[in-house]
Design brief:
1 helix; mainly alpha; 83 residues
Length: 83
């Protein structure tokens, strides 16, 4: 897990040389992919968090509608019993 503001690039200096002594671009590419995936996941998480209040409102509206129907049927039954 990354700390907000932390960068994987800081880790790029570690192990830059491969076993044969040449600079490894694979490590750089891997770090870039990790950063990209982390940013994408962060954006997805933010989008999901923004969707949650809307989903709650929709759920509350449905619950309210069901309650109104229940009250209507309840009142209709009371009226029928009094007749």
């Amino acid at each position: 897990m990354l700390i907000k503001g932390a960068s994987l690039r800081g880790l790029a200096g570690v192990g830059r040389m491969s076993e044969n002594g040449l600079a490894s671009t694979e490590n750089e590419e891997a770090l870039h992919l990790l950063e990209h995936n982390h940013e994408r996941r962060e954006e997805e998480s933010t989008a999901k968090l923004k969707e949650q209040p809307m989903a709650r409102r929709v759920g509350l509206l449905e619950t309210s509608r069901q309650y109104q129907m229940y009250r209507l049927h309840w009142l209709e039954n009371i009226i029928k019993q009094e007749s």
